[in-house]
Structure formats: C-alpha cells, structure tokens
Amino acid sequence: MNSKPLQLVATLVLLALAQAAHAILPIQHWETKRGARVYFVENHDLPMLDVSVDFPAGAGFDTREKSGAANMTANMLRLGAGGMDEDRIARELADVGAQLGGRFDGDRGGAGVRTLSSASERARALEILARMVAQPEFPAPVLEREKVRLIAMLKEADTKPDTIAARTFSRMVYPTHPYGLRSAGEVDTISKLSRDDLAAFHRSHYNAERAVVALMGDVTREEAAGIAEALTAGLPAAAGPAAQLPPVPQLPKSEARWIIHPSTQSHIMVGAPGIRRDDPDYFALFVGNHVLGGGGFQSRITEEVRQKRGLAYSAYSYFSPMLREGPFVVGMQTKGEQAREALDVVNKTINDFLTQGPTAKELAAAKKNIIGGFPLRIDSNRKIHEYLAVIGFYRLPLTYLDDFIRNVDRVTAEQVKSAFQRRIHPDRMVTVVVGPTDRSAKLDR
Amino acid sequence: MSAHFPAPRVIASLALALTLGISGAWQAFAAANTQIAESALPNGLRIFVKTDRRAPVVVCMVWYRVGSMDEVNGTTGVAHVLEHMMFKGTKAVPAGEFSRFIAEAGGRDNAFTSRDYTGYFQMLHKSQLPLAMRLEADRMANLALTSEEFTKELRVVMEERRWRVEDRPRSLVYEQLTAAALKAHPYRYPVIGWMSDLEQMRVEDAKAFYERWYAPNNATLVVVGDVTAQEVHKLATQYFGALKTKTLPVRKITEEPEQRGPQYLTVRAPAELPFVMMAYRAPVLRDPDAEWEPYALEMLANVLDGNEAARLNRNLVRTERIASSADASYDGIGRGPGTFYLSATPTSGKTAQDVEQALRREVQKLIAEGVTAEELQRMKSQAVASHVYERDSMYFQAQQIGSLDMVGLPPSLMDLFVEKLKLVTAEQVQAVAKKYLIDDQLTVAYLDPQPVAGKKPSAPPAGLRHEQ
C-alpha cells in the first residue's frame, strides 16, 4: 500500500488548521469581582453545560502529619453543605438530572457539575455546586463513616500488586516531597483527621482569589459571568500568600526494589521526577515520549515489549507534568518468570532512546499522528472543558490550542534528544518490581 | 492507550447508559437529533450512519455478529484472539501496518470483543474515512494469519488474561459466578477464554473461526460524524462491494435449562475484604415495543442504585453502615439470557453473608412495599438528562447503534428506551421484583479473602546499582 497520498492529506489538514484566520477555539477569559479566573467557551450545539471550580488544593498541599486531608476535603464537599445533608444534595441533583464531577490530583482539588442548560434545571444544579465549594459542613458522623470506608479500601488496595508497586515507586521517587505522600492519606493519618482539620484545609485552600472556574456549553457570556460570580462569591478569602509546593530534589542515585507478591504477573515501574507544566521543553518531551512509549503501537516500548516479544499486554511511558516536577513513568505487567527479561528490554529501550534520540522517520510519524489527530482532542464538550480547566489552572496561554500544532510541528530530533538527556538520567532512576519472583529468578528462555 | 481489549461488560454499561434520562422538551430535542440512516449492500453488509457535524471528525466501526457465545468447548477465547490477530496483517497490509496507517493519518484505532459481538473502530479526521474503510474491507476478506504472528500474539493474550482476571479476585468471582449460574448456555465462557484453551490454541482455530464468521453478510458498518449517509454508502460500495457473501453456519446455541433452586459458591483469593455477588436470572429485551418487563427491571436497578441517595447506598452504606459499597445492575440487552446483579462489600467486622442478608432485606422491602412515586420520577429525570449528555460523545453513539444491531434490536431503541422508561409504573417495578428476584433463580458467589503472604519487600543488597 502506498502511503504517499496519506502524507499529503495529513499535511493539508495541518495547513488548514494552522492557517485558519480565526482562533480554533475562542476562549473567553476574565476575573470575577473576588479575583477568581474564569475560562469560558460558548457553544449551543447541545442543551447542556459543564462547569468546574478548581483550587490549588490537591494532595501535594497535604502535610505528612495530616496526609489525606486534601482528599477527604474534596470528597466531603458533596456530603453536606449550606444546610443540605448528603441525601438531599444527591436527591436534588438527581431530580434535575445533574451529574457531579470533580477533580482531585496532586495539584488540584475542587468540584464540578454537568447539567442541562435549561434555566430551572441549571439554576438548581449550580446553586448546589456553589454551596458545596463555599459552605461545606464536614459533618462529624459522616466524616467518621467515610474514614472507616476509606481505610478499608486502602487496606484492600494494599493487597494488590499494582497498588504496592505504585506506592513504593512514589515514595522512592519523592522521598521527601509531598508528591510522594499517598494522595488518599495513610491509615494512621486518616484515622486522626478531624472535622476541624478539613474546615481549616478548606478555609486556607478553597479561596476565591485562587479559584479557577471553567465553563463549556450552552449559556451566553452574560450568563456565564453571573454563574462565575455566584460560584465564587461565598468562598473564603485568602489569609495570606498562596501556599507554594517545595522544589523537587533530584534523586542522588539509582535504586531498585523487588517485592515478592503471590500474583501471577510482575508489575514493573521505572522512572524518576519528570517535568513541570511550564517546562520550556514541554513539546519536545511530549512528542519525544510519543516515540518512546506514549504512542501506543507507534512507540518503541510497545514494539520491543509487546510486538516483538509478546511479553506484555500493555507497556508504556508517560510524563505527568504538574506544578512541580511530576513523575516520568515507564510501566508494564508480565508473567513473573519474564520480569527480568522484560525489565532488561525496557531499560535497553530507554537507554537507546536517550543516546540516539528519535529517528527522522519516527519523529515524522509521531507528528503526523499528533497533528492529524488534533481535531479528536477537541471534538466534545467534555474534552474542551478539560482543556479549559488545565489552561486556567496552569496559566497556559489562551492561544494554547491555537498554537498546539505549530508547537508540535517545530520540534526537532535534536531538541528531543537534548531535552530527554537533560531530564532523564539512567544513573538516577527508580525501579520497582512487584510479583512472584525476585531479582535472581532465572529466565525461562 | 491503544490495546486490543475485550469488553465483557459492555452490554451492562449500555443498558445502564440507555437508562440514565427530564421534561418533555428535552426528549423532543433528543428525538429530533437522532436520525440514523440505514442501508445495505447487495452482499449483505448493513450500514448505519448518524451525521454529527459538531467537529470535523468521524468514528468508523465495523461490527461482526460473532462473540464468545459462538465458541465451543476447547477453543474458548478464540473470538477475542482473532480480534487481536486482525491487526497482524493481510497480503496487502503487512503485520502492524494497519495501526501505523491509521496513526499516521492522525487516527486512533482499537477493537473490542464481547459475548455477542466483535467490533473494530477508528476515530479520525473526516478526510481519512476512505482510508479506514479501505483497510477494514481488506481485513474482512484477506487476513493472513501466520503461525509466527499467532504464537507471539497468543502470549500477549495470556498476559492480558493474567492482568484482567488471574490477579484480580473480583474478576475471578465474576468469572466463577457466571460459569456457575449458567450450566449450558455459552454465556458461561469467559470472553477472554479459559487459560487451558488459550494454551492449546492453534492458528488453525483462529483461521477456521475467521473463515466461518467474517463476511459482509455477518457484519455491520456504523459511521457517526461529519459525513452524510450518501457519502458513506458510496464509499462502502467502493471498498466493501466486491466482497463475497458467505453461507453462515446455522447458529446452534444451547438453551439454558430452567434453574431449580438457589446455588452458592465460594472463591478463595488473596484479598483483604470479603465480597458478595448475587446473580438472578432475568428476561432480555426481544420485542422493544410490546414488552415492558425489561424496562421495569432497569428502573428497579436504578431505584436501588441509580444515584448516591438511592436505596442501597442510603440504607446499607450511609445509615446501617453494614456495607462500604453496594451495587445493583440489570443486564437485559444481549443475544443470550439476561441477569440482574446485586453486589456488596461489607464494612470491617461484617461478613459477606451479613451484606448478602442486607441486600435480601432491601429486595424483600421492595417486594412488600414497592417504590414511591418520588423515587420513580427522580430516576426518569436522570434518564432523560443522561440521554442528552450521551450526544456529547460520537464514540458512545456509534457504540450504541452497533451493539443494538448486533443483538437484533433496532438502533432507534436509543430513543425509544427513554420513552419506555418514562412509562414504567411503580406497580410494574414491584411486579418484576416479585417475579424475578426469587431464590429459585439465584446464584450467590462469596469472596473468601486469603492472607497475602510474603508482603515484605526483599531488601536490596548493599551498594546496589540501578539495574540497567
């Protein structure tokens, strides 16, 4: 099959998108009276609206002593707020067909809702969302119940090889940084969390000045402005400068840990602290990782581990860019006896990539996929809403999506190689293997 | 993450998704927007097109009406293995090139296998639809199936089985429960196959399955996106038109004999918490206009578990605090028999039997007292709204159209389903609970947690270097 016509079409798509005179996605941005940043795309194709309010209130803002407070705060917003108990909140949202969302990760905590855009349904759903973010009550009996449930879930998760691997990896990559804390907290810290802890966390992190409101869908700019004001008017005021996450220290040396577990497969993770969301090499690393292990069947890791050797069902690498250096992770699962072989293959693949960078052909193929597939990144309200929330929280340029294709297209093989070499150091990597065999296990072939 | 995965729960999620939906005005909107054009080629290929111009993209899916229920003892899992092999080359497109062509065209592709069907899809810019259709037509008739590729890919599938099932106690519970609840119907086979069948599978098994079932007259093309039905029909004629019709085998599916009493089983696996899963035999939807029971069962599942304030969560988790989670679902759309599921995880100090009894008490209360008008209305509002939200995903819409057609139901059921849910009465919900949630039709599986031995990390030798 001749692939030339394809290249031509991909190029045409690129040109059409890159040369469009108007913005690909007109993002409207303003601040509320209280200083919250608002990001809005108006679209009336579907009679619905997605809204979220996020804060720098993710697990990275936990302390070691009260690890889990951030997660429990976000989790309990819907379990009693503004004079409504948890059942009333759930019932009234269901009555108008609204669906609660919400985001919780290392950086962000908050809440969101998907609602019909018709006036009465929308008003009710947003009124409840406003109470949740501004007036959560953290009722003590509900907190006690949620603590018991969460602790049981963590104990269950701790019997699973993937959880054990991920926890061990995270602690080894971030031995002192809060990104290494378990995002849900530890059994002993969760059991000590009090209502006051959550109220204090809410008061100090869910501030109007630091809120990011993202809206996508069937309302006018005027309506969106009213919604953003209503959602942020009742939020606590910031008492001082925003909490800053500490810098992430580099790892001093490589370290490997093998943990025996009665599973049939070994879960393998290799990685290190990666990059910040504002890293100037973001696009070089993003495109480069597509070649290394982020591009599915286009990527080297899948080719070496799965296609050539049949060692794993899924094998991948990714960067997780955050406020501070989020992790670079390479992961896979393979039958216990093959763990040693699979790890050797993956390490060789990483090292070869670091030494040589991508080939011209690989780089071109990765760009074609990313650029040609750009329309798929913004083909639904949900995906566009996600972008708004990220652009707002990480203060990316409003033209982020308009510039996306150009930024991908201008990445060179040399930039990829250089950026990877500056970020990923083979002598400062963490390796975790959890499964039925230890490091001395003989290969089965 | 691109990976060719089975979707054994796809039907359950479809049933759930079809259910979730407010007032008359919204329904009018939804109905007006669901215009699905249907056509066919002379060789029997069925075509459904739904135009959605919100973005310059298309979802292209080719569905085959063959899944794990068409397998026989000794070669379970072959439908799914064949799904993997469909990416392993034809004469014109060598192994691995299919995904490479799609990727370089900016597309994403993958596939799924269920008990009822096998499906393949591409999502791409609308200008690339001809490429997707040309490649799909090619592999519908010209798959190479070499033993070298087969041997490697079989290892991948065994890794997939270890990852999905062997190391997940609750997947083991579901697999064992299904195999126990059904004695004869092939729904009792796991979609991914039994490990021993995978171990003895040969390329000839996949080849025979392919030759028997992959043909235009056993396939349906579904396209959703920025394209017209005429354009799709023309492209389909161009690429699929020359493919030959096959005489399909007679489908000889063993009927499930009547269950004559409750069945209980226990699964022991490394875990911390016990777990119980209960499966009641239930009807499946065959005549969407005439029947009412499947819609009532769907509402029953929602009254129990349709939102956080629904009965199971409110009573068992929040009030009695006997369970840390509790779920209900109804699987009533499929080529084989239907099932109504209840499951729960006990809180610390409670047993699987304790939460089983709590689930039974909720069932008995429902049978004795019925549901309130308020509960029912709430579930209907949710269903109508969800039906609007579903329009946000072209993939989801294509998925619904294809999976309904595969089980012999009209894709227009996407809209009819919500209308039918709105007609369900409190008496009907109570009646189906009384008729179907009975011990004679019940199979219960308990997870009996075993200690996870050797949890201690092996300390790395002193001075260890990173293992490169």
Short description:
The complex is a heterodimer of chains A (445) and B (468). Helices cover 45% and strands 16% of the residues of chain A.
Shape of chain A: globular
Bin the helical content of chain B.
40-55%
Most extensive interface: pair and counts? A-B, 99 and 91 residues
**Total strand segments of chain A:** 13
Strand/helix succession of chain B = HHEEEHHEEHHHHHEHEEHHEEHHHHHEE
**Estimated share of beta-strand residues of chain A:** 15-25%
Count all strands of chain B and give the number.
12
Number of distinct helices of chain B: 17
Radius of gyration of chain B in whole Å, from Cα? 23 Å
- Indicate the multimeric state: heterodimer
Structural classification of chain A: alpha+beta
Radius of gyration of chain A from CA coordinates: 23 Å
Which residue ranges of chain B are poorly predicted, with pLDDT under 50 across at least 5 consecutive positions? 1-33, 454-468
Poorly predicted runs of 5 or more residues of chain A: 1-12
Average pLDDT reading of chain B = 90
Largest sheet of chain A: 6 strands, mixed
Distance between the first and last residues' Cα of chain B: 26 Å
Strand residue percentage of chain B: 15-25%
Instruction: Please identify the structural class of chain B as seen in this structure.
Output: alpha+beta
Work out the helicity level of chain A: 40-55%
N- and C-termini, Cα separation of chain A: 37 Å
Question: How does this model look, in words?
Answer:
The complex is a heterodimer of chains A (445) and B (468). In chain A, 45% of the residues lie in helices and 16% in strands. With 445 residues, chain A is an alpha+beta fold. In chain A, the strands form three sheets. Chain A has a six-stranded mixed β-sheet, with helices on both faces. In chain A, strands 9-13-10-12-11 form a five-stranded mixed β-sheet, sandwiched between helices. In chain A, a hairpin with a 5-residue loop joins strand 1 and strand 2 (37-42). In chain A, helix 2 packs across helix 8 (195-205) and helix 11 runs antiparallel to helix 12 (339-356). Mean pLDDT of chain A is 93; it is low at 1-12. Chain B has 468 residues and is an alpha+beta fold. Chain B folds into two domains: 2-19 and 29-240, Metalloenzyme, LuxS/M16 peptidase-like (Cytochrome Bc1 Complex, Chain A, domain 1), CATH 3.30.830; 263-450, Cytochrome Bc1 Complex, Chain A, domain 1. Chain B has a six-stranded mixed β-sheet with strand order 1-2-6-3-5-4, with helices on both faces. Chain B has a five-stranded mixed β-sheet with strand order 7-11-8-10-9, with helices on both faces. In chain B, strand 1 and strand 2 (46-51) form a beta hairpin. In chain B, helix 2 (24-33) runs parallel beside helix 14 (373-389) and helix 14 (373-389) packs antiparallel against helix 16. Chain B is globular, with a radius of gyration of 23 Å. The relative contact order of chain B is 0.18. Mean pLDDT of chain B is 90; it is low at 1-33 and 454-468. Chains A and B meet through helix 1, helix 3, strand 7, helix 5 and helix 6 of A and helix 2, helix 4, strand 5, helix 6 and helix 12 of B.
